[in-house]
Structure formats: structure tokens, C-alpha cells
């Protein structure tokens, strides 16, 4: 049994297993399901994630308030042109935007870890899988690696914007995705957790300030930037940047920062960009 | 690690909100499973944050979809108003106060030929729910597995008779909680099972001496 990253890595070393294998063993024990059944659930979730990441690339979705209709297609079209960050980065952003657009238009998504942050893990998994020619099997292992990171946040901190701000949603999603991307590129278990730590540190303190209280603005944009955060954090770890702060301490500090955030910046739409004049005008236009 | 990975990456759901959309659909679907009779009208009393924010998160569509028997990952969720219309089912929403420690609460009242029947509950976040009252009977049901709620006279042997019937029909009991208002008065037990409860077993349970009512939530979790 493990309760944090330190104990998880210890088990990996003792049993000569990867993070995903130790986490899967634990899942089988915890749920009483067979290994095959758990894997079938993950496979189904991966499929739903990919569908939501692709659905809005070519077809604009009708979202409540129409704030993010067509954001995925907009970024996708641009990703084929001359860009600053490159076609690949822009394509991954489009994938994340797609999930958010699908979510806001009553489409089917897989929360990871939440519905508001449902674009980051799928965009990174699909983007890296396609771009680096990774097998579906290894991508599935990466999804389990990401889930194991998410479980540590769930247990020792929070993944609710109402408790910890956006760092607990898009921050955790980026952290999960960073570990997954690092795993797909062959990083060691420790390096995967370094990547996860870097991603969280990059956005620590990020507030949750949804305009008109809708899961749209700035959520979709933060899914797109969160996916990129995951990629660059994995690259930091793969480059060999030293993580001076152990992952568990990053998780703990995120939790404490979340508690320091005033309620106005925790999903109440009473602060941040939600209360800008433009944000309030949008609220009035939608709800009168 | 006592957190399930499938709860971290999940639920699979229709957006936009796990608490306001997925949880609402699941709560209403559970209420429908408990009621399990035809109805021509359904009313939704909304409490807490449900009352103030339901429109922005399609909570209303999700509730109607659930009452029609749809799951939280059913892609017809967005058309639930039209589907209810096709089935000739009327619905409405009203703000109400439901005493609860939870933020998102609803009282779902089905109106059929036999009169009114209500179920109260809360959406707890992450798509999880809690049913807190079934037509006047206070309870705590998560609806993550097939669940039987037996209301009985508080006399010896009832619980034993009930569990014997389940064992005889090869239904494994996961968790069983028995409670009562006072000694010798009404008691009830909530039984969480691993398997779907067949209709004939429900009938057998209803015939047990001193059993007053049996309600079954036949919901299959993962």
C-alpha cells in the first residue's frame, strides 16, 4: 500500500515495476474487479477522451452562452499554418480546446480529473501518441500513470476548484498529463513525478474565476495552455532539470495555497476575470 | 491508496459539470429506479446551489433526462425536454428549502395514477450522489450498486428472514445497515448487494412477516 509519491516510488523499486503497474495492482485490490475489467474501463475512457479531443476540430459545437463555440476549429485551422510555437503545439492546443467545447455543449467527455479540466490529459495523450508514434498499449499505460498522479492529489490535496482554485483542476490535469508524456517518452518513474511536479509549480496559485459561472471562459483557454504546460514540463524532466522540491511537498504546498485563496477566487465567479466589466457584461447578456 | 483510479479519470459523462449535470442526472435516474411506476408529471424542487445556478449547467435538462431513465453519459441528455414532450410527460422546476449539509439538493416528485411519490437527495461532486429521503423515509444511499431498502417492524427474525432469501437466491450482501426509530417500533435496513435483484426476489421479500415495504434500486456500478 502507498499513500503518497514517496511510498509509490519505493514500491516501484522493491517490485521492479513501473508506476502504472503498482497503481493497477492497487486498483484491482481496491475495487475487487479483475485486471482485465479495469483495463477495459481504461480503454473505454481513452476512447471517449480521444473522441472528445477530435469531435470539435472540424465542427463547431453550440455551447451555453456561445462563449467558446468554434474555439477548437479556430486553433486547428491555424495549426496548419505558419505559427510561432509550431504546428504540433498548436494542434495539441486544438485537441484540448475540443474537449472543453464538447463539454460545454452537452457532449460526452471523461472527467480527468474534473469536467472543467477534461481537455488536458486527452490532448497530451493523443498529441504525443500521434506525433511520436507511440503504441495504443503504451498510451493506455500512460493514462494509468496519469491517474496514479491524480489519485495522489485527490488523497493528499484536492481536485475541486471550489476548494483549491484552478490549480486544483487544470493544474492537476497538467501535472497528470506531464507524467504521462514523460512516461511515453521512456522517462524513469522518478522523472515522471519530476515532470508532474514541474507542471504544478508552473501554475501554482492559479485561480478559478469562471465568467457567468459557466464552464467555458477562461476554462477552455486554460485547458489549451494546460496541455502545453504538461508538454514543456515533461521536456524539463526529460532534459534532466533537477527537481529540488519532492513531488509530495509540491502537492502539499498546492493544497495550502488553495486554502489561502479567498472564496472569491474559488469557483464562485465573484473575482478574477469573472468580475471584470467585460465578464459582468457577458453575465448580463446570458442571464439578464 | 484508497482512491480509485477510475474515480480520478472519470466519470464518463455529458458536460459541463460533474456535480451540476452528471450528479443531477444520476440523482433523478436513481429516483426513477426507486419509484419504478408510470407517471404523467414530475416536479423538481431545487435547493442550495442547484436553485441558483441550474440553468448555466443544464441541471434542468439533466434532471429531466434522469427522470426519463437516462444515464449521465447518455448523449440524448440535451434533448430531454423534447423527449419528455414526446412521451407526454409534464415537468416543472421550483426553488425549495431542503434541510441538508450538502450544497446541491433536489426533491423529485413523481405524479402518477396512484398519487404522488417523492425522492430527496444531493449531488456530492464528481458525479457522486446521496439519496436522503424516500417518500418520507430518511436514508443514506449512494446508489453505486444494487441496493434494497426494507422497512419493517422492529421484531426478532426479520433481518434473518431477509438475508436467508437473498442467500437462497445467490445474491451476495456487500454492506447491510440496520436502524430503527425506537425499540419495537419501525426499523429499516439498507442492503447493498453485488448483483441485480430480480423481480421475484423483491416479491419474496415483500411477503416476509413484519416487512412493511421493500424498495429496490437496481443500479449496476462499474
Précis, in short:
The complex is a heterodimer of chains A (288) and B (222). Chain A has 288 residues and is mostly helical.
Which assembly state applies to the chains in this document?
A: heterodimer
The helix content of chain B is 25-40%
Low-pLDDT runs of 5+ residues of chain B are none
Label the overall shape of chain B. Answer: globular
- Alpha-carbon Rg of chain B, integer: 18 Å
The largest chain-to-chain contact, stated as pair and per-chain residue counts, equals:
A-B, 55 and 34 residues
Strand content of chain B: 35-45%
Number of helices, counting only DSSP H or I runs of 4 residues or more of chain A? 13
Span between N and C termini of chain B? 19 Å
What is the mean pLDDT of chain B? 91
Shape of chain A: globular
Helix content of chain A: 55-70%
Number of strands of chain B: 11
Number of DSSP helical runs of chain B:
7
List how many beta strands of chain A DSSP finds.
1
CATH class of chain A: Mainly Alpha
Q: Could you give the distance between the termini of chain A?
A: 53 Å
The description of the largest β-sheet of chain B is: 6 strands, mixed
Structure description:
The complex is a heterodimer of chains A (288) and B (222). Chain A is mainly alpha-helical. Chain A has a single domain (5-287), classed as 2-methylcitrate dehydratase PrpD (Orthogonal Bundle). Chain A has helices at 5-15, 19-31, 35-58, 71-79, 87-104, 120-131, 136-156, 161-164, 170-184, 189-202, 219-239, 247-260, 277-287, and one strand spanning 108-110. Chain A starts with a helix and ends with a helix. The mean pLDDT of chain A is 96. Chain B folds into 2 domains: 5-141, 2-Layer Sandwich (60s Ribosomal Protein L30, Chain: A); 147-217, 2-Layer Sandwich (Alpha-Beta Plaits). Helices cover 28% and strands 35% of the residues of chain B. Chain B is built from 7 helices and 11 strands. Chain B has helices at 5-8, 18-35, 48-53, 59-67, 80-86, 158-168, 199-206; strands at residues 12-14, 41-47, 90-95, 104-112, 115-125, 128-134, 137-141, 147-153, 173-180, 186-193, 211-217. Chains A and B meet through helix 2, helix 3, helix 5, strand 1 and helix 7 of A and helix 1, strand 1 and helix 2 of B.
Amino acid at each position: 500500500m502507498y499513500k503518497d509519491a514517496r511510498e509509490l516510488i519505493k514500491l516501484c523499486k522493491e517490485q521492479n515495476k513501473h508506476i502504472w503497474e503498482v497503481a493497477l495492482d492497487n486498483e484491482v485490490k481496491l475495487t475487487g474487479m479483475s485486471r482485465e475489467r479495469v483495463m477495459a474501463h481504461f480503454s473505454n475512457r481513452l476512447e471517449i477522451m480521444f473522441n472528445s479531443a477530435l469531435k470539435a476540430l472540424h465542427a463547431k459545437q453550440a455551447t451555453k452562452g456561445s462563449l467558446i463555440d468554434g474555439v477548437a476549429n479556430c486553433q486547428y485551422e491555424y495549426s496548419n499554418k505558419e505559427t510561432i510555437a509550431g504546428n504540433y503545439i498548436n494542434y495539441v492546443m486544438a485537441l484540448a480546446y475540443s474537449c472543453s467545447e464538447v463539454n460545454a455543449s452537452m457532449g460526452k467527455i471523461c472527467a480527468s480529473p474534473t469536467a472543467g479540466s477534461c481537455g488536458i490529459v486527452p490532448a497530451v495523450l493523443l498529441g504525443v501518441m500521434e506525433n511520436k508514434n507511440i503504441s495504443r498499449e503504451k498510451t493506455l499505460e500512460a493514462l494509468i500513470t496519469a491517474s496514479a498522479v491524480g489519485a495522489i492529489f485527490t488523497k493528499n490535496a484536492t481536485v475541486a476548484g471550489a476548494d483549491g482554485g484552478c490549480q486544483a483542476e487544470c493544474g492537476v490535469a497538467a501535472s497528470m498529463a506531464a507524467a504521462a508524456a514523460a512516461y511515453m517518452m521512456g522517462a524513469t518513474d522518478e522523472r515522471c513525478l519530476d515532470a508532474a511536479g514541474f507542471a504544478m509549480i508552473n501554475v501554482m496559485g492559479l485561480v478559478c474565476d469562471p465568467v457567468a459561472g459557466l464552464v467555458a471562459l477562461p476554462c477552455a483557454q486554460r485547458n489549451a495552455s494546460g496541455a502545453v504546460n504538461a508538454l514543456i514540463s515533461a521536456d524539463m524532466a526529460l532534459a534532466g532539470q533537477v527537481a529540488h522540491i519532492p513531488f509530495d511537498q509540491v502537492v502539499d504546498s498546492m493544497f495550502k495555497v488553495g486554502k489561502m485563496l479567498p472564496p472569491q477566487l474559488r469557483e464562485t465567479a465573484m473575482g478574477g476575470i469573472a468580475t471584470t466589466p467585460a465578464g459582468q457584461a457577458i453575465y448580463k447578456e446570458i442571464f439578464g | 491508496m484508497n482512491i480509485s483510479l477510475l474515480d480520478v479519470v472519470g466519470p464518463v459523462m455529458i458536460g459541463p459539470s460533474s456535480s451540476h449535470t452528471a450528479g443531477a442526472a444520476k440523482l433523478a435516474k436513481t429516483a426513477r429506479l426507486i419509484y419504478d411506476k408510470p407517471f404523467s408529471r414530475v416536479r423538481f424542487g431545487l435547493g442550495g446551489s442547484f436553485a441558483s445556478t441550474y440553468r448555466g449547467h443544464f441541471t434542468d435538462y439533466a434532471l429531466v433526462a434522469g427522470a426519463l431513465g437516462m444515464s449521465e453519459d447518455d448523449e440524448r441528455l440535451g434533448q430531454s425536454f423534447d423527449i419528455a414532450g414526446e412521451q407526454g410527460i409534464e415537468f416543472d422546476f421550483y426553488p425549495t428549502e431542503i434541510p441538508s449539509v450538502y450544497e446541491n439538493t433536489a426533491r423529485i416528485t413523481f405524479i402518477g395514477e396512484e398519487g404522488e411519490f417523492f425522492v430527496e437527495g444531493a449531488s456530492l461532486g464528481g458525479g457522486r450522489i446521496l439519496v436522503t429521503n424516500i417518500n418520507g423515509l430518511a436514508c443514506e444511499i449512494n446508489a453505486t450498486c444494487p441496493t434494497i431498502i426494507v422497512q419493517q417492524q422492529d421484531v426478532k427474525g426479520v433481518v434473518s428472514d431477509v438475508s436467508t432469501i437473498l442467500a437462497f437466491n445467490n445474491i451476495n450482501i456487500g454492506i447491510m445497515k440496520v436502524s430503527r426509530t425506537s425499540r419495537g417500533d419501525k426499523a429499516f435496513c439498507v442492503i447493498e448487494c453485488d448483483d441485480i435483484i430480480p423481480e421475484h426476489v423483491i416479491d419474496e421479500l415483500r411477503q416476509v412477516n413484519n416487512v412493511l415495504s421493500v424498495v429496490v434500486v437496481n443500479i449496476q456500478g462499474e
